[in-house]
Amino acid sequence: MDGLWFRAALALLVSSIMAARAFRRKSVDLTGVAAAIPVMVIHMVAGYRFAVLLLVFFFTSSKFTRTGEDKKREIDAEFKEGGQRNWRQVLANSAIASILLVLLVMIRRGEDSCLDTEKSKVVTILMGGIVGHYACCNGDTWSSELGMLSISQPRLITNLKTVCRGTNGGVTFDGLLAAAAAGFVIGLSFILVGLITAECTAAVAWKQLLVLPLAAFAGFCGSLIDSLIGATLQFSGYCTVLKKVVAKPGPTVKKISGMNILDNNAVNAVSALLTTLLTSMACMALDQNGFIEGKSWSCFFNNSPLCFIQQVLEATLYQAFAFKSFFSSDPPLLFF
After folding, report:
1. What's the pLDDT score for residue 332?
2. What span is annotated as the signal peptide, if there is one (predicted)?
3. Which residue from 167, 201, 207, 281 has the highest number of Cβ atoms inside 10 Å of its Cβ?
C-alpha cells in the first residue's frame, strides 16, 4: 500500500510538470491538463510500465502532431498549433485504458506481472486490452499526422476512390505503415519495461515477445477500424469558401462521405474500444489455445506476418465464439 501512495505522489509531481510544459507548448489546453493529471496518476499507480505506455503515446503523438504544421494548416480547417488537445480528446484516448487499469489495481494491488493465462486469465485479458488500446490510439495518431504529409493521394477506405487530404476515412500506404510502426513501439515499450518490473519464468518470458507483432497488428487494425468508422459515421465535406475539408455540413459544403453521427473524439473512442476487445481476446486465445507454443512461434521466427495475422484472427474467433468444434485442433495455415 505504501508503494501505491508513493507512486501516486510521484505521478502527481511528474504529471504536473509535464502538464505545465505541454500547456506552454500548446499541446493541451487547460481542460486537457485537468483531465491528464488524474489519468497519469491512475496509470502510475497501476504500474510503471503502464505510465510508460501513456508517456510514449503522448510524446510521440505530440512530436508528429507538430511535424509539418505549415502544410497541415493549409489542409485542416480545424488546425490548432501544437494540437491543443482538450479534455474530450484526452479521455477519448485514455478513458478505456484507465478503467481497465483501475480493475487491474483492484486485482494486483499495483504489482506487475507477465501475460500468462495459467497464472491469471483476467489479468492477461486486462493487460492485453491495455496494450491494444494504446497501440490503436498511437497508430491512429501516427497514421493521421504522417499520412496527411504523404506524397500519395489518400483513398477512401470504403470504395478506394481518391479523396482530398484530411477526409475522414482516407488512407494511404504511408499512413497504414506508420500505424503498424506505432503499435510496434507500444509493444516494445511494454516488453522492455516489463523486463525490469515483472518477474516470470523463462518460458513465460519468451512468450512476451509475441506482444510485438500483436501490438503492431493492433496499431494497423485499429487504424483501419478508425478509418472505416470515420468514412461511414463521421461527416466529411469540401467547403468551397475555405477550400478545405470540413467535418460539418453547410450551405457551402459539398459532401464527400459519411453521416453526421459521430465526431472525431467519438470515432477514436469507439475504435479504441473495439481494438481493446479484439486484443484482449487475442491474448487470451493465443495462450489458452496453444497457438503461442505452436505455429504462432514458427510464424514469428520465420518472418511470415500473414501467417501470424491468420493465427491471431483464428485464435480471436476461437475465443469469441468458444466453439472448439468449429475449428480443428491444429488449424491449417493458409499463408506461409
Report:
1. 36
2. 1-22
3. 167
Tell whether 326 is covered by a domain: no
Total structural domains in the chain? Answer: 1
In a domain, 329, yes or no: no
Cα–Cα distance between 287 and 95 in angstroms, integer?
27
The Cα 171–Cα 275 span in angstroms is 18
- Owning domain of residue 301: 1-317
Kindly write down the DSSP assignment for every residue of 240-304, as one continuous string.
TTTTEEESS--TTEEEEE--TT--HHHHHHHHHHHHHHHHHHHHHHHHHTTTTTTHHHHHHHTT-
Which set of grid coordinates corresponds to residue 179? 500505424
Residue 325, pLDDT score: 39
Q: What would the DSSP string read from start to end of 166-200?
A: T-TTEE-HHHHHHHHHHHHHHHHHHHHHHHHH---
Query: Is 336 a member of any domain?
Result: no
Alpha-helical segments (H) within 67-120: 69-75, 87-92, 95-108
- Cα angle vertex 125, ends 122, 131, to 5°? 140
Distance CA 84, CA 166 (A): 18
Q: Which amino acid is at 134?
A: Y
Phi, psi of 155 (to 5 degrees): -120, 140
Query: How confident is the prediction for the chain on average, in pLDDT?
Result: 81
What would the pLDDT profile of 179-219 be if each residue is shown by its tens digit? 999 999 999 999 999 888 888 777 777 878 888 999 999 99
- 331 assigned to some structural domain: no
Closest alpha carbon to 110 in 64, 48, 40, 31: 48
